Amino acid sequence: MTTPTPSVAELGHVGLRCHDVSRQLAFYTEVLGLTVTDHDERLGIWFLSARPDTEHHELLLAEGRDAPVGIKLIQQVSFRCARFEDVLGFHRRFREHDVRLDMIVSHGNAVGVYFYDPEGNRCEVYWRTGLVARQPFVEHIDIETDPEELLDTIRASVERHGATGFTEESYRAWTREQAMPAGGAAAKEVRQ
């Protein structure tokens, strides 16, 4: 009897250790709108989901972070949105709540708004465009442009660069800086 090769169906959840679980919990529930599905205060853990009827938890917040803020532990945690309007709405909400933004980009196959949670973890909300684009594809966009005009611009860019991928020099420089050890040069804010 042969055993089939095991395969992963999908990423189930990500767990983050926190300095201040209460502050993180408020951010992920009030700003991102995730639902607390369970918690155990004795253990200092909280389970959150965007789809509590489908997935018990997609994010776990836990006490006990001992790495200083600013240490590069997580490249990003991304949350997929069902509609482009959701990404636009989150962008407005982030501005209303003074959430620190990182970059707003087209990936060709997606539109993403990158931001930082209260403890400096880099996150993204994104919407899949349905277009095919080789990755990496990182092109800064002005999300306050008329939505139809912006989508037309993204489609045109994918027509030009979708087969080869595309990255702006500022993103390439930022990526190189992020790969430097902590004692290296400080990362610069090179994105909008």
TrEMBL record:
The keyword DNA-binding does not apply. Keywords: Dioxygenase, Oxidoreductase. It holds the Pfam family Glyoxalase. Residues 10-128 form the VOC domain. InterPro entries: Glyas_Bleomycin-R_OHBP_Dase (IPR029068), Glyas_Fos-R_dOase_dom (IPR004360), GlyoxalaseI/FosfomycinResist (IPR050383), VOC_core (IPR037523). It comes from the Bacteria. GO terms for molecular function: dioxygenase activity. This is Glyoxalase/Bleomycin resistance protein/Dioxygenase superfamily protein.
